[in-house]
Design a protein that fits this description.
By secondary structure, this protein is α+β, with helices and mostly antiparallel strands. The chain is built from 7 helices and 39 strands. Helix 3 crosses helix 4.
């Protein structure tokens, strides 16, 4: 879209100057009012170069009067890189719902209706660079009829610039090959290269050892709810603030339960079912508001369940399988908080309990679990959108290929990370696994510094996977570890 410059200088006023550069959109046209040539304001805006040329600082003119806050600019930049709402929430340590609110405000302020338009806006205004981006234009006062011309600004780069770029590229290659293992087309599990000990960090332990807890994150705080705490089924709520490495106790859950899960929908945490104090599954659905530290009840589960797999997808809560007190379940229930209602969706082919679920893109991945035949080693992909068209919603994926039960699963940066659990040969002390969706295979990462048992709490915060508690040989654990799943390499910006 053209940019119209207006000035009261007589020779220039004969026509508007049209160029392809960055500026705000006003009534379908990008407009920027320049000071009159020769004035002090004009010279300040357009610094004098060699001869009688002036460089337009278009990047300084970007996003004029758009009213975007610093956080909104951060989110707009991430949207322009193709990041999803969940990835943005993870990167900025905020909830996906908060990201949606910010996006609505951003779209309104910059007058766009889609992420594509927002990305184009970010490219036009210089928030991000794209391949083939034009250089700053030059205003030449010596052009015919006094009409300014737009020419590419000369670029000068010294030898040190190329040396710095080369050094940065070498650093990236060294880090890349250090953390990636060679491909292994023969097997489904491949051994990663040796990992630096610094990948594991120890944090402040739980105030009460525990396992089987529900876990959810909200605005940089991880909430551990219920579970077996201190040797008994509890309604205890512990809040861990990542910034400050501190724990704080919150209002207890009204119905103490274990073998349960939690998801964040909007700005509230939903905990369905679980195993009650009498050793039987319950159907209650309790909702926690982390802002007010208060509890409320919503519509109960259609049946009492514990040990299910739980996930949130596009504002709804999905419950997979579980134990109903008499048998393992293959049923799938979906809760809509807006309607406060439950629906039953396509069941799994195999009943199971104590599986674990995580969201990758447009699907929910469900791994492992146990049933009457023993531990399950498969992994399934469930596509919620296929329910409406009557298609089969389930597909098979490569499982961890070992008899491993009692683990927990979490999604981070389009990968699944699996921690904890036990095998037929070993209880606790198993390595973390990572699932690569592009290769449809699992990768063995490094061992934890201390054994992680069955049913630990798992949460992805920033670049780290936080692991809370677990149980080994009927003994609850209190350790709190963090595993650096992603490395961030910073390259210094180079300017002329």
């Amino acid at each position: 879209m053209p940019l119209l410059f207006y000035t009261s200088d007589p020779p220039i006023k004969k026509r508007a100057i049209i160029c392809d550069c960055k500026a705000r959109i006003v009534h379908g046209c990008m407009v920027y009012n320049l000071p009159d040539p020769g004035t002090e304001a004009f010279n300040e805006r357009l610094p004098v170069g060699r001869g009688r040329k002036f460089i337009f600082p278009f990047r300084d003119m970007m996003v004029v009067e758009n009213g975007l806050s610093e956080r909104e600019l951060e989110i707009l930049k991430l949207v322009a890189t193709g990041a999803s709402n969940k990835e943005i929430a993870t990167r900025l340590v905020i909830s996906p719902n908060t990201v949606k609110v910010h996006l609505r405000n951003i779209f309104a302020k910059i007058d766009v209706v889609s992420r594509t338009e927002a990305t184009l806006y970010a490219m036009r205004t210089g928030l991000i660079r794209h391949e083939g981006e034009s250089q700053p234009a030059v205003f030449d006062r010596t052009s015919p009829e006094g009409i300014p011309s737009l020419l590419p600004a000369p670029r000068r780069r010294g030898l040190w610039v190329f040396l710095a770029v080369g050094a940065a590229l070498i650093l990236i290659m060294v880090v890349f090959f250090a953390i990636r293992s060679p491909t292994n087309p023969q097997g489904q599990i491949k051994q990663a290269a040796a990992t630096p000990p610094s990948r594991w960090l120890s944090h402040q332990d739980l105030s009460e050892s525990g396992f089987g807890m529900a876990i959810a994150s909200y605005e940089g705080t991880v909430f551990l709810i219920g579970g077996q705490r201190g040797g008994q089924i509890s309604g205890m709520v512990s809040a861990y603030r990542v910034e400050g490495d501190q724990w704080q106790e919150k209002s207890a859950k009204p119905t103490p339960v274990t073998d349960t899960g939690a998801v964040l929908l909007g700005e509230k945490i939903y905990i369905p079912g679980g195993l009650g104090l009498d050793g039987k599954p319950v159907e209650v659905l309790e909702v926690y508001d982390p802002r007010s530290d208060q509890w409320e009840q919503a519509k109960p589960l259609p049946i009492a369940l514990s040990g299910y797999a739980l996930a949130s997808f596009e504002g709804q809560l999905y419950v997979f399988g579980g134990w109903d007190g008499a048998a393992y379940s293959a049923r799938v229930f979906v809760y809509d908080p807006g309607e406060n209602s439950w629906q039953e969706h396509q069941p799994m082919a195999t009943p199971r309990a104590f599986g674990s679920a995580g969201v990758l893109g447009t699907k929910i991945m469900l791994a492992g679990g146990v049933n009457a035949q023993g531990p399950l080693t498969d992994m399934l992909a469930y596509y919620p959108q296929r329910e409406t068209s009557g298609e089969a919603a389930w597909e098979s994926r490569s499982g961890p290929l070992e008899n491993r039960a009692g683990f927990s699963l979490v999604a981070l940066a389009e990968s699944l990370y699996l921690a904890g659990g036990s095998s037929t040969q070993q209880e606790g002390g198993l390595p973390i696994l990572r699932y690569d969706e592009n290769q449809d295979r699992w990768e063995i990462l490094d061992l934890p510094p201390v054994p992680i048992g069955n049913q630990p709490g798992l949460a992805a915060i920033g670049n780290y996977i936080h692991v809370f508690g677990g149980v080994i040989n009927a003994t609850a654990q209190s350790e709190h570890l963090a595993y650096q799943a992603i490395y961030t390499v910073l390259i210094p910006a180079i300017s002329r």
